[in-house]
Every structure is written in C-alpha cells, then in structure tokens.
Write a sequence for this structure.
C-alpha cells in the first residue's frame, strides 16, 4: 500500500524494490516536471495533483476526460475530502497531456492483476518491466476506471498528503506538535489561538516531502464524498459556452469533410477534383490512401463539395461480406469446434451427458455503432515541424503520442489541446484514433489550422463497432431445479475478461469461444462484452428458471448462496419493484443481474405490448458499487447506461452489405427518446466492497431484463436483437438480417 | 447579402440562400452553441427558436429565416440572468456530455411558451430530441421545475 501511495504522490516515481523496479526505469523525473507544468503565479503546487493559491483556492488536476460521467467533479471531491478543504474554494483543471501526469494508479491496478481492466486500456503494452514505461504513458478514461483507480489510489492520497504537509508547516511555524494542529475547511488552527488558511501556509508546506503513507479518512468522517454535489462542467453546457471539438474556431481555420472508402480496407484509386473545385469556398481536394477530403471555408461548403465528387475506390476483398455471410461464418466457427475454454469448473461435458434433459438455446446480436452526439472530428495545425492538435479524446496523453507517431514527429513537437467532449462510450478511446490520423493527414496539405469532420453518415459508417456475436447455451437441472451444468459457447471474447463469468453457484460450468469472426473494424462499446454476454447469460438464466418451473427471481436467488453481495442487490431490486405483487393487467416484469466493472447491478423492467408496440414503462435498478462518491452522478450514470442498453435492445442494428455499413443516420439507427424512456428508479447500496465503476454497469443487464419481461407477458422468447425486427406477440422475425 | 436577426441583433451574411441556417450560425457568425448532430432534422441538436417556435436549423435554408426573430442558446439570458429553463437545467444537473442540451433547452423553452404547465404526455410529445447519454429523467424533471418557477 505504501508503495502505491508513493507512486501516486510522486506521479510515477517510486522507490526501488518490489514492483517499483519497473517504474525505476522511467527516464523522467515526474514530480519536478509536473510542478513546472502546473505552476502559476500566486499558487503553490503541493504535488502533481494539488495546487493551492495564496487566495486559499484549491485546484485539483484531473488526469481523465470528462465525457459526461462527472469525473471532473467526483475526483476533486475525493481529493478535497482528504485535504479537508472548503468545497466552495475547490476547482479543477484537466491535467496536461504530459508523461508527468500519466496514470500510474491504473498501471498499478494492472500490476496487481486486477482482471477487470479491459485490454483496450493497455494499448500496445505487454506486461513486462521494459514495457511498463509505455504503459505509464496512458491517461485513459475508460473501463469505468477513473474513480476506482485514480480516485481511490491517487486523489485520496494526494489530498491526504497535501494536508499532512500543511500540518507539518503549521507545526514548524508555531512550534507545536503536529498532532495538536486541526485542519478543517481549508484552515489550520491550534488551541493556542494560532490560525492560518491553507493558502497562507502553502508555500511553507511545499518545503516538506509528501508523506509516503498518509492516513486516510474513515467513511463516517466524510463531509464531501457521498454528497450529490453539483458538477463543475454543467453551467457551460447550459448556455452554449462549452467549446466542443466541432466548436473550435481559430484564425485562418479551414473546414474539411471527409469520406473514406465505404468498404473497410478499400483504397482510393482516383477522383476527379473538378466538380468540387468549381464550388464556392472550396480550397482543396485532399486525396489520402483510403479517403478523400474537401477543404473549404465552412463545413457546409466542404460537405456539399464532397458530395459532388465521385471517387473511384478499389473496394478489395471485404466487398464480398454481407451480414448473412458474417453470421454464417460465426456459426461455422462454432460448428468447427476449435474453441478456447475459459472460466471452467467441474466437468460440464460429463454433467450434460448424465443429465435427464438438456436445455439448449441459440442467441445472436448485431453490430452496433457508438453514435456519439458529437460526430468524430479533430483539428490539426502544422507550423513547420511543430504540430498542434485539438479535440475530444478519452486519453489525452495517448492522443498526443498517437499524433506524434502518425506525424513522424518527436512528442515534444506535438501540442495537444482539450476540448469539451460530446460523448465517448468507447469511440474516443486510444485504439480508435482514426480521426486524429485523418486530421493530421489533411492538415499536412493545408495552410493554417483545419477542422476535419466526419458528417453523421461518415461517423456511422466508419466506426469501430460493438462486435456482432452468436451464442449457444446449454444447461441442465437436477430434480430440485438447481443448475447442474452450464455451457456457454460464443464467438469473440474481447473485454473485460470476466464479462462471461457468472456469479451463480454452478458446480459444472464452462465458457468456450471462437475468435476472429468479425471481418469489420470493431472495438469497445459502453460496457464492452457485457452488452452481449449480459443478454446471453441472463436470458438463458431466465429460460432455465422457467424450465425449472420457478419464479425467475427466486431461481436466481437460490443460486447465489455463495454471493451475498449479489443476493442483496437482487433482493433489493425485487423489493423496489414489488416483484412479489403482480403488475397491472396487460403488463409483465423481467429481471436480470450482472456484475460489471466491479459493480453489481440488478434491474427489473416492466413492459406492455399495445397494438404490437412494446412499451417499457418502468425500470428499477439496484446497484452496489461498494462506495459511492457522488450519488447524483452515479444515479445519472445508471439511468443513462440503461438507456444506452435499451436503445440497443429496441433498435440497435448495424448491418453489413457488400462490405459496407447499411445504416446512415438516426432515421435508420434509431435512438430511445423521451417518449420511449421508461420511468426509472435507482437504489444505491454501499456494501463497502472494493469500489466499482459507474459509467458502464447500468448498460449490462437491461436487454435481458426487457426480453425476460416480454417472455413473461407473451410466452415468446426473443433470442436475437434488436426487438424492432420481431413481432413480439408471435415471436416471428419481421425482417431478414 | 442576407440580413438575419439573431438574438435581437442584425447580421449581414454573404452566403448561398440554400445554406442551412445551422451552418450560417456556426461557421459564419461563429455562434457555436447551436450544434450539428445529423443534418437531416432527425436529432434536434440544432434546435433554435424562429419567431418563438422550435425549429431544426440543419434543414432550414437561410433565406427562410430572413425577416424573422431567431433566438439561439446564446440569446436566452436576460443580462446576466439565465432563462428559467437554463436555471432548472443546472439545478436538476441535466447534462452529461451536454452536446444535445442546447437543442433540448430550446425545445423546452418553446414547449413552456406554448404550454406553461405541461403534463408528462405533453413533454413526451414535444421533446423528441435525441440525448445519447440518456438524461431523459433529468430533462423531464427540469421542465416540470421550470414550469413551477
């Protein structure tokens, strides 16, 4: 523990020995560098993360991106809590995209072997001493990790260390023991009547070393953490002053619209520039190896001129893919049986063989686009061998590194500037920085800064999609209705590794998967593999409950003997939703539960079908993240996460035809809107378990909860999403995939 | 030259008549509070008020806005005082990523002008803008709060 805290306080520099061997290889001195970067007249940095002004204001430096999850407020809350700061004096800044602010806390979690860290956060790093330095370059915001890594291991310790330094300074100045100093509400005081603000003592405090292992507060002493405090980022999002990437306006800036070859992997053969160049405001047609862009004096002219072009593409081998051929490939991969086994216990094959009856079901889910409200965009500007890049990224340092690599420049030559971010959901994670590459490629050929934008159709058809997947489930029951075998076979395991795990006490279970079944670009999408696995696992669990003739809640509960935390969450959602009391006539409820990103979430959906149309009236969520920092933010994340998952369940479908994406815009990739949105009720349970995530867990169970409710209502088991493709009363499919 | 009245101020712009009002606001007048989301009137991120009515500007040719009162998110404040809908949005902590919220706020202002005490059904019918973050509970609560303010 001491090591981890020291790591964080010093921003990555650690003492020798143990795990620190890897860090000791780091070629930079981070604390001094960090302090220089956040230095400002009239202030004193007390570590890389906390700066105190002579006016007694506290600035907390947050190394994560605000994508609507509230992290620019929740992390300062954790720091201010331990600092005993007056919250009204606390502000924040995003930590610079510099190695001095790389995410040591996240690296440490990885070293500890926390399996809930998705591999997309690891970049190209492979575990090993020499590679840790690369890994330390990360400043990534993803995997519902910020609060539980940087917050728990970084911000709390940084606040406590700064407080200890202030106390040491006051004790020295006043000639009294440290133990007699009271630090409260940004003021130091002593029984003798001596008193000073943090701001007055900050310069003296900076002369002391941060303690390696400062004591942290007990939960009962919290005055900031646990309160629904207003978020710092909200006012600017209500009056039009927040500057998103697309809102950036620079002197001499051009606007570019871009179109990549619609078939993934295809290349540009030729394009006649004349139709675009003849149009008003057009400055240049930029040809890239696999895309064409038009640079103009405003976005609309760029977009119109791009539409006037008829690029000739070499579509390549991928043009043969259709959605049917892709699904057929997945089925074939499972038929072939060359599968990787994971999460096995007991002997599932023997248990299935000896079972009286085996229950089997096949499931499938399509590709999904992220469809952030702010489309992908990035602004880049070359000045000689210097490059400046502006935009919204889920990892600033990684974005800077990517820009440097793509531009062929040393990192020092690249300046990265943050904008407000109009949605992330995984699309703006480091593995998916195609929009940075494209902006740089265009900027190379343009004088002055250029803002490169994917118009909505481009954004939807050039994504890294939530991967499609098929699953075959097998289960068996004993005479008492207890599961004796659980075999979960599926295509493509991505992240996080435990998304296929079940918390139920199955004596014989295994998951087996085929890989390499997705021929189009795919990647992390809010809650990642939980989106598919939550639907497969919790739908099939419901099938087993009905096969056992048991109530779906009681059936799950009976399989949670070894998981008291999960049982408590399940019982809470049953109690909230009045599970024991039948719903109104014409309505039915479904239940589902997942552990995702170390948070346990159970949901109950209440549905009806009127004139063939599904209505999700209510959604109850019980959630245990161990401990909650900002309950308002956490609740909003549970609700918003559920809407994201509900949109996928009801409407979400990206289909491939002739190697390209069929859907183009919100008209054929529909979203849940106000009238569709269920009334939501969220209960937070703080069990004190290790802190879990907030951004993604709410997405995981919702599709299964809704489909289980549909089964309760109609007797039809829908095993394929989205639901818009089915007549829910008969269970028949309306359209071919 | 086209003259537009935006937030009570006349602006002369030298643009094509067919250019959508959205892009004139954003790229010519640099009033970027109004957002681009879809370009086909499907999401509502670009909503402004034209003569008090909520309009999706990504499909409105700028010539159609001539001679009308255009109100954008930047024009809702009276002096330093935020509009009651903006105040409610902050009090209810509505935005997550926030990108759609200019459009949501403008749609809510139009709704409350037409129906000062909207029911949930009124809200369902009038508030058709997409919020990808799914902040619908908070949007609904903020509209009810603004109606009471």
């Amino acid at each position: 523990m001491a090591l981890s805290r020291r790591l964080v306080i010093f921003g990555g520099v650690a003492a020798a020995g143990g795990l620190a061997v890897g860090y000791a290889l780091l070629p930079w001195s981070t604390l001094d560098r960090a302090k220089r970067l956040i230095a400002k007249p009239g202030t004193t940095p007390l570590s890389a993360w906390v700066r105190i002004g002579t006016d007694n204001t506290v600035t907390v430096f947050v190394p994560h991106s605000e994508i609507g999850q509230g992290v620019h407020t929740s992390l300062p809350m954790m720091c201010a809590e331990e600092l005993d700061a007056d919250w009204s004096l606390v502000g924040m800044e995003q930590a610079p995209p510099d190695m001095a602010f790389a995410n040591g806390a996240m690296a440490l979690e990885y070293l500890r072997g926390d399996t809930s860290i998705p591999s997309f956060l690891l970049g190209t790093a492979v575990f090993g001493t020499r590679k840790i330095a690369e890994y330390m370059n990360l400043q990534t915001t993803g995997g519902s990790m910020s609060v539980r890594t940087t917050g728990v291991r970084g911000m709390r310790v940084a606040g406590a260390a700064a407080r200890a330094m202030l106390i040491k300074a006051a004790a020295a100045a006043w000639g009294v023991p440290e133990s007699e100093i009271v630090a409260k509400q940004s003021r130091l005081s002593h029984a003798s009547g001596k008193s000073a603000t943090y701001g007055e003592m900050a310069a003296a405090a900076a002369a002391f070393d941060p303690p390696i292992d400062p004591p942290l507060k007990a939960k009962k002493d919290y005055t900031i953490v646990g309160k629904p405090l207003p978020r710092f980022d909200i006012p600017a999002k209500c009056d039009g002053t927040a500057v998103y990437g697309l809102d950036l306006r620079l002197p001499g800036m051009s606007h570019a619209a871009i179109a990549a070859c619609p078939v993934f992997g295809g290349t540009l053969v030729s394009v006649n520039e004349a139709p675009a160049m003849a149009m008003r405001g057009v400055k240049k047609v930029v040809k890239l190896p696999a895309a064409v862009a038009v640079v103009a004096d405003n976005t609309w002219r760029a977009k119109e001129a791009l539409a006037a072009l008829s690029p000739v593409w070499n579509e390549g081998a991928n043009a043969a893919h259709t959605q049917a051929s892709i699904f057929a490939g997945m089925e074939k991969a499972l038929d072939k049986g060359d599968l990787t086994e994971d999460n096995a216990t007991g002997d599932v094959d023997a248990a299935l063989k000896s079972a009286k009856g085996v229950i089997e079901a096949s499931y499938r889910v399509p590709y999904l686009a992220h469809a952030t409200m702010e489309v992908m965009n990035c602004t880049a500007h070359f000045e000689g061998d210097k490059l400046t890049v502006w935009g919204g990224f889920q990892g600033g340092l990684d974005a800077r590194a990517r820009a440097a690599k793509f531009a062929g420049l040393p990192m020092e030559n690249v300046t990265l500037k943050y904008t407000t971010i109009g949605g992330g959901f995984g699309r703006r994670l480091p593995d998916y920085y195609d929009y940075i590459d494209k902006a740089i490629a265009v900027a190379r050929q343009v004088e002055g800064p250029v803002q490169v934008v994917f118009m909505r159709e481009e954004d939807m058809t050039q994504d890294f999609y939530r991967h499609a997947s098929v699953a075959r489930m097998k289960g068996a029951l004993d005479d008492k209705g207890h599961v004796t075998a659980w075999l979960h076979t599926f295509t493509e395991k991505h992240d996080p590794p435990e998304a296929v795990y079940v918390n139920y006490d199955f004596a014989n279970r295994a998951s087996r998967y085929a890989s390499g079944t997705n021929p189009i670009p795919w990647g992390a999408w809010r809650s990642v593999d939980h989106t598919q696995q939550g639907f497969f696992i919790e739908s099939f669990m419901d099938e087993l409950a009905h096969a056992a003739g048991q109530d779906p809640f009681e059936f799950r509960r009976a399989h949670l003997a070894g998981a008291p935390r999960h049982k408590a969450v399940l019982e809470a959602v049953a109690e909230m939703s009045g599970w024991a009391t039948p719903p109104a006539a014409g309505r039915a409820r479904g239940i589902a539960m997942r552990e995702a990103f170390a948070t346990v979430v159970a949901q109950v959906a209440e549905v009806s079908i009127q004139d063939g149309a599904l209505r999700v009236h209510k959604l109850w969520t019980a959630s245990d993240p161990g401990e909650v920092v900002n309950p308002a933010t956490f609740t909003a994340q549970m609700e918003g996460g559920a809407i994201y998952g509900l949109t996928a369940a009801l409407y979400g479908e990206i289909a491939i035809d002739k190697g390209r994406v069929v859907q183009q815009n919100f008209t054929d990739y529909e979203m849940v809107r106000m009238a569709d949105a269920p009334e939501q009720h969220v209960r937070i349970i703080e069990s004190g378990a290790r802190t879990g995530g907030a951004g993604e867990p709410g997405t995981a169970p919702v599709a299964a909860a809704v489909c289980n409710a549909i089964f309760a209502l109609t007797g039809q088991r829908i095993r394929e999403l989205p639901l818009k493709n089915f007549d829910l009363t008969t269970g028949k499919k309306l359209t071919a995939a | 030259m086209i003259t537009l009245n935006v937030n009570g101020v006349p602006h002369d712009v030298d643009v094509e008549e067919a250019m959508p009002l959205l892009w004139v606001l954003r790229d010519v007048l640099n009033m970027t509070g109004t957002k681009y989301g879809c370009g086909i009137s499907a999401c509502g991120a670009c909503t402004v008020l034209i003569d008090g009515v909520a309009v999706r500007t990504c499909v409105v040719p700028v010539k159609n806005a001539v001679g009308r009162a255009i109100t954008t998110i930047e024009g809702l404040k009276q002096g330093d005082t935020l509009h009651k809908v903006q105040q409610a949005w902050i009090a209810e902590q509505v935005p997550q990523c926030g990108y759609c919220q200019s459009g949501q706020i403008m749609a809510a202002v139009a709704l409350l002008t037409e129906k000062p005490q909207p029911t949930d059904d009124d809200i369902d019918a009038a508030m058709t803008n997409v919020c990808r973050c799914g902040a619908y509970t908070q949007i609904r609560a903020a509209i009810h709060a603004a109606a009471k303010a």
